[in-house]
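Reminder to self: tokens first, then the designed residues, so the page reads top to bottom the way the pipeline ran.
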């Protein structure tokens, strides 16, 4: 708050130095003029003042004008290819370090510099994260904006480097504002209210989040952990009230990882978070010897419903397919007895999806890619792991146990990254 006041006072001083007031017309044309000014002015105070005005006008724009703004910024500040080509020929000729620096600057253009200078505004970092959230929606409509998005992502990967982030254990004593945000950010295993959240902060549970220094009350990503005897096989068991005579725990089951900021999509935080939390738990509770997950299987139900029937018959065989073709109907309800009855066939289908369905030699499922990339191994398929509307809509209630063998993490990670080799247990092997 103190820092924000200082930056605002500098912005006010900068506005006086510029002999400017806030523009009468807060429209797209004015906004783009200010963007040119932001790149042109050298003074810090004037730059902060202009950045603040840009952020205020941007927030007042309609959705249509926001898209026009991004298109204009992309065009206005993109690299000058002709100048870059000329400078590259000059470098080839003289091999001069200064020429190389000039070439690097030309290749980058002014898009990144524009983003850097916008970060000077009060609440600049939070504003840019929100701005990229808007941009990501427009990229889906217009792929030409992907270059601008790449510039955002490049800078965010530096600004949100885990080395800059603060890991905080969330407890009942954490600020109420943070706890309220956590309730709103949990989308998979929804937190109904503060009472529900309190259970997830109990003595047999752990809750950790990453924070950025300039966003002290805004969680970026958080993970929920349950201390269990062996890997958990039911989310409902995890989130139900604590009971007397809980079995002695030997395992930390990670059951929910939530990215809180859509504007930080593709800015890798989760893998660092898991490894850091493993370390924290080891230090706190040496009795916890095993680490794994009870993970969702997003997209599985959609894949089953939209894949060609002939392919499913090829995967399962015609006889087995006939037994589980009900999965492609609309009458699959929570606790459907047919899922238990035909669980072996369904497990076979699930494992095929996890291991065989790929994009660019990697599993099509994002959660699978995430854990394998962290060095985990596929341990087990859990039938009725999530008997909720969300669980059934996403994956017929099926969840996956991934296990982190701490002595094999690096080896498994390297084999996956270098050779696309997927690690799995003997429980999985018999279905492959």
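Designed residues (432 positions):
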């Amino acid at each position: 708050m103190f820092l924000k006041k200082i930056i605002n006072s500098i912005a006010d001083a900068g506005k006086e130095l510029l002999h400017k007031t806030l523009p009468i017309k807060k429209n797209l044309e004015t906004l783009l003029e200010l963007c040119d000014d932001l790149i042109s002015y050298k003074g810090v105070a004037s730059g902060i003042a202009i950045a603040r005005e840009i952020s205020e006008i941007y927030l007042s724009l309609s959705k249509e004008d926001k898209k026009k703004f991004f298109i204009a910024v992309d065009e206005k500040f993109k690299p000058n290819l002709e100048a870059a080509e000329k400078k590259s020929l000059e470098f080839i000729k003289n091999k001069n370090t200064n020429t190389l620096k000039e070439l690097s600057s030309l290749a980058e253009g002014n898009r990144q510099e524009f983003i850097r200078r916008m970060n000077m505004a009060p609440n600049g970092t939070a504003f840019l994260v929100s701005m990229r959230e808007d941009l990501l929606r427009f990229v889906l409509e217009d792929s030409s904006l992907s270059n601008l998005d790449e510039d955002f992502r490049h800078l965010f990967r530096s600004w949100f480097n885990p080395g800059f982030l603060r890991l905080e254990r969330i407890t009942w004593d954490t600020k109420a504002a943070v706890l309220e945000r956590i309730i709103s950010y949990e989308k998979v295993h929804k937190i109904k209210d503060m009472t529900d959240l309190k259970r997830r902060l109990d003595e047999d549970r752990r809750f950790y989040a990453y924070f950025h220094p300039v966003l002290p009350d805004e969680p970026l990503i958080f993970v929920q952990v349950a201390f269990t005897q062996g890997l958990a096989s039911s989310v409902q068991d995890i989130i139900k009230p604590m009971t007397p005579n809980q079995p002695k725990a030997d395992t930390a089951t990670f059951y929910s990882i939530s990215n809180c900021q859509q504007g930080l999509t593709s800015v890798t935080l989760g893998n660092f978070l898991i490894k850091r939390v493993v370390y924290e738990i080891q230090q706190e509770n040496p009795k916890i010897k095993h680490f794994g997950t009870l993970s969702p299987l997003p997209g599985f139900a959609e894949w089953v419903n939209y894949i060609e029937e002939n392919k499913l018959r090829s995967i399962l065989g015609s006889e087995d397919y006939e037994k589980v073709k009900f999965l492609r109907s609309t009458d699959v309800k929570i606790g459907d007895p047919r899922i238990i009855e035909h669980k072996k066939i369904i497990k076979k289908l699930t494992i095929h999806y996890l291991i065989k369905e790929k994009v660019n030699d990697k599993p099509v499922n994002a959660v699978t890619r995430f854990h394998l990339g962290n060095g985990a191994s596929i341990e087990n398929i859990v039938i009725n792991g999530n008997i909720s509307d969300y669980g059934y809509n996403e994956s017929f209630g099926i969840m996956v146990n991934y296990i982190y063998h701490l002595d094999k993490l690096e080896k498994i990670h390297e084999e996956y990254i270098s050779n696309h080799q997927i690690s799995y247990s003997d429980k999985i092997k018999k279905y492959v």
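The two ends are 56 Å apart (CA to CA).
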